[in-house]
Amino acid sequence: MSHVAVVLAAGHATRFGSDKLSATLHGEPLLFHAIRAARAAPVERVIVVARPGLDTGTWTGEPTVEILRINSDAMSDSLKAGIAAAADADGAFIFLGDMPCVPHAEAARLAAVIGPAYAAMPRHDGRPGHPVLLSSAAFPDIADLSGDQGAGRLLRTRDDVVFDDCTDPAIHFDVDRPEDLGWLASRDRADKN
């Protein structure tokens, strides 16, 4: 099975009040943490769907990191562009650029449980999270999405989605406000002590 990781990073983060994906966490832009999580997945390549002007960094080694620039805030446009670029893969992991704490081992667990299912998702305390692994069977349905709609609604209507029950609540945590970064930094300091 060949898998690709797609990192969605084309939004403008209006709730954050400034350039969220460039905000610093542990000395580097928030987006870099999401790219690193995507590179830790069992993938052949990583596609970062980014808005023009966003610093996506320079990544060497394997898997390769490709930057796909789009000029749209709509979640569906980012997702469709990433899936179109991954069309030759058997599946695509979807990572969000504002989720810096996704456990790196989760993607491998999703790859192990997906089998013939439409998609695989991590779940903590009964709630699904990220990353999501879409099989290629989902790709045509993603192409039909519109507006600020991700794959969530589509996945909730399917009975052929499998779940990996995990113990890490970080599969739910996305950065929405500047104070979220401060909370993350203090949490990480506490974890090191």
From TrEMBL:
Pfam families reported for this sequence: NTP_transf_3 (PF12804)
SUPFAM superfamilies: Nucleotide-diphospho-sugar transferases
Residue ranges annotated for the MobA-like NTP transferase domain, each copy included: 5-160
Domain of life: Bacteria
Keyword Calcium: no
InterPro entries: MobA-like_NTP_Trfase, Nucleotide-diphossugar_trans
Key words, A-Z: Magnesium
Keyword match Magnesium: yes
Protein name, UniProt field: Molybdopterin-guanine dinucleotide biosynthesis protein A
Protein source organism: Novosphingobium indicum
